[in-house]
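Q: What would this chain look like folded?
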Amino acid sequence: MRAPVKLFLASSNPGKLAEYRGLAASGGSAPFELELVPEFDSLPMFDESAPTFAENAAGKALHHSRLREGLVFADDSGLVVPALGGAPGVHSARYAGPQATNSQRIAKLLNEMTSLTGDQREAYFVCAIALAKQGRAIAIVTDRVDGQILGTPRGSGGFGYDPVFYFPALEKSFAELMAEQKNQHSHRGKAFRKLLAALSGMI
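A: My prediction, written as structure tokens:
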């Protein structure tokens, strides 16, 4: 049996690592081992100021792959509401200010959408994931999941905008889904499975 391929996530967030490990495990018996980039917080940070999710993910992966050996992957994701001109978009995490809580970001979003009804409340989550090694891009994948913005939060699971993102196929908000359900349908799950499939064809 061949040794697993190690992938380093350019993040200091153990919760995000746990989610990716769960996605890797649910994807079958592919031989991948996931770890955080060692000493991530002590490394020079990458300024995620690009106008697209893919550019931010690629820039972050390339940046950290030059600082650490091995296969480094990074993501950028967020919520897009077409009726708000694409907001929050790449600014999803900073929508209500750099130190804002999830509740504050949701409150601002709902306030901006007070007068919107019907199709105007359509939205989608986007996730872009980039993989790099020693400053060379190996793969960039993106995917999305479509839904609608609720008038009030529902559910206690998930994070970010999950409580107000309604997923019609299961008639629940993302915060009401079991982890396995969310992994199957989420933008991050779909994008990461694309990445693993691309990698599996290379090794």
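The first strand starts at residue 5 and ends at 9.
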